[in-house]
Every structure is written in C-alpha cells, then in structure tokens.
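Researcher: I've got a protein sequence and the SMILES for flavin-adenine dinucleotide. Could you write out the 3D structure of the bound complex as structure tokens? I'd like something to compare against our soaking experiments later this week.
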Amino acid sequence: MDIVIAGGGPAALECAIAARKYDPEAKIAIYSGESLLPYRRPALSGLLAAGKTVEEKSFFIKTPEFLAAENIAFHPDSRAVAVNGKVLELASGQTIAFDRLIIACGSNAVMPPIPGNGNKNVFTLRSYSDMLKIREILDKGIKNAVVIGGGVLGLEIAESLLSRQIAVNVFEAAPRLFANTSLSDGDAGALLGRLNSIPLLKIICGKSVKAILPDSVESADGTVYPAEIVIFAAGSRPDLTLAQSAGVKCNRGIVVDEYMRSSREDILAAGDSAEFNGRCFNLYMDAVAGGKVAGTNAAGGNMLFTAKFSPVRFFGLGEKLVLD
Ligand SMILES: Cc1cc2nc3c(=O)[nH]c(=O)nc-3n(C[C@H](O)[C@H](O)[C@H](O)COP(=O)(O)OP(=O)(O)OC[C@H]3O[C@@H](n4cnc5c(N)ncnc54)[C@H](O)[C@@H]3O)c2cc1C
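Model: Sure. Here is the predicted complex with flavin-adenine dinucleotide in place.
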C-alpha cells in the first residue's frame, strides 16, 4: 500500500504515525512545502519576543531519527500542485503514484484587500520563514506597530512586540473582543479595559483599517496611527487548489465524513484543510486528532472521528481564557 501525504504540519505527521501503527508494511511518504521537519506552529508568535530563540527539542514535533525508525519518508521543499488520477504532481515536475492520498496542507493566512497591503512593511505570520522575516524588521529596533485582528493570534503577536518595548495598536473590526465565543459582552468589555491598561498597548474594537501607508495606517474615520510594521492576524483559509484538481467536494475546506474521507474514496483530509460538520478546525489538537483518524483509515482502518472542536485558549497578557 502506497500512502502519500501532502502537507508538512502536525496533521500530516500524525497521519503518517497512525498509518504506520496500523500497517507496518505500508510505504508512507510525506511531501511538505516547507524546508523544516513538522514543528509546533503555535510557538511562532512567541518567537517574535525579545531574546527568544528556537529550542529544537520543544519546537520540532519529532526527530529525524524517529521518522527513520518508523520508516516514514519525509520530503522537504516538495510542494504538491495537482492530483491527476492516482498521481500527485509536485512543483518540481516529479510525479508520485499513490493508493491513498491524504491532503493535510493546512491553511494560508488571510490578507484582506486593503490598499497598501503589498507594502514591504506588511506581513502575515503562518510559517517559520514568515517569523524570520518579521523578526528581521523587529531587530532593527522599531518603535511602533499595528496588528490587524484582535483574536488569539493578534494578541499573542502584540504580547511579543510589547516585550521589545514596541507600542502596538491592535485593530479588531468586530465591536468587541472574542465576539464569536461564549464570552459575554460584559466580560469582553472588562477584558478590553484590563488589556488597554497595559503600557504601550491599545486595542481598538469596531474600527477597521482603510489604508496602509509606508510608515502608518489610516483607519476608516481618517485617524492615522504610526506603524513601521503592520502584521495581519485576520484568520486563515485552506488552500483548496490540490483538492479541487482531484475533483473532491470542497466548501470552505475539503469536506470530510466522520472517517476523514473526502468525496473520493482514495483521498482523505485532515487538519486545517478539512471541513467536518460544516466547520474547519484551525486548532492544533484537532489537527492531531483528525490526523490520527485519517492516517489509520488510509491504511485500511475504520476509525471514527469522535473528538469535539477544542475551545479557544488565550494564555497571555496576564489573562487565562478558555472559551467555547
Ligand atoms: C502563529 C500561529 C499561532 C497559533 N497558535 C495556536 C494555538 O495557540 N492553539 C491552537 O490550537 N492552534 C494554534 N494555531 C493553529 C495551529 O497551528 C494549526 O491549527 C495547526 O498547525 C494545523 O495543522 P495542519 O497540519 O493542518 O496545518 P499546518 O500546521 O498549517 O501545516 C500545513 C503544512 O502543509 C504545507 N503545505 C501547504 N500546501 C502544501 C502543498 N500544496 N504541498 C505540500 N505541502 C503543503 C505547509 O507548508 C505546512 O508545512 C496557530 C497558528 C499559527 C500560524
């Protein structure tokens, strides 16, 4: 059995580990668009903080020795671009035949269509290489930043920037923080008050950014905020190119059933790429849980995905929030 996995994050890795557990004989190969072994993506925002460096042991999920011992082939810098019948095509032109394909390509950061979003001081944070690019600017000793998006990621980024004594304006377009969670309006207001009492931090709810200028942003009401760097933390969206080329059913993500199978019997999906019960996961533990199911079933199992969507957690800026 040839099990091919497109992706290179926690979902892809968990797929491979689970498939190996189910079938000691299967040929299992991961083709990743990144040059690094699968790592803990949530660590990236903290790596922007003053003095933070990568601690390999906690950053990488598994070692090369582990993958070798499990006989899992990991191919870095191997972006998949299309599925043609039972063949995966890579950007390099290489073609890989599969019996079962798992698409675990995660999602891409959303960049809203705001004038100036292509300026050289504008970034998103999704990958290790994004983090390095942002850190290069921060290391120049800048003084003012704007973060667009006041969810967990936006607040984590803000915390790292504050550790470098950078003044941060966070724009949240919704009228309050964590609007799509169980947090009540009253508690959201109290949270905003506490956060806005932190020196150098200003969270602006209910206001959007109209334009990004070379060293500032202009809000919808015409106010100008200084910004030597602008970082978008405005959500993420699965890249469906591969799945669409394979002809599988997609909505926001690749539609999967409770076995993590797509509409094509030989193609499964897991992690941020997958849409289960009308929702995309977008959380680390759900990527791992779905990966376990997809990997097992790709290898011939019949495991059911029973995990619930995880709550939203934010532990930072002096807060400990767990929100359904
Ligand atoms: C900065 C940051 C902080 C986060 N913090 C948290 C947190 O605190 N808690 C939490 O639960 N979640 C958090 N998340 C979300 C969490 O990291 C993701 O839900 C999780 O990584 C999803 O795993 P995945 O394997 O599906 O996708 P990803 O981790 O995104 O991995 C996808 C991989 O596939 C590769 N890829 C993409 N397209 C292709 C292709 N065509 N061919 C081959 N490879 C491809 C990508 O390069 C990437 O390596 C955070 C995310 C970010 C970016």
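Model: The radius of gyration is 21 Å. Residues 176 and 189 are 7 Å apart (CA to CA).
Researcher: Great, I'll pass this along to the crystallography team.
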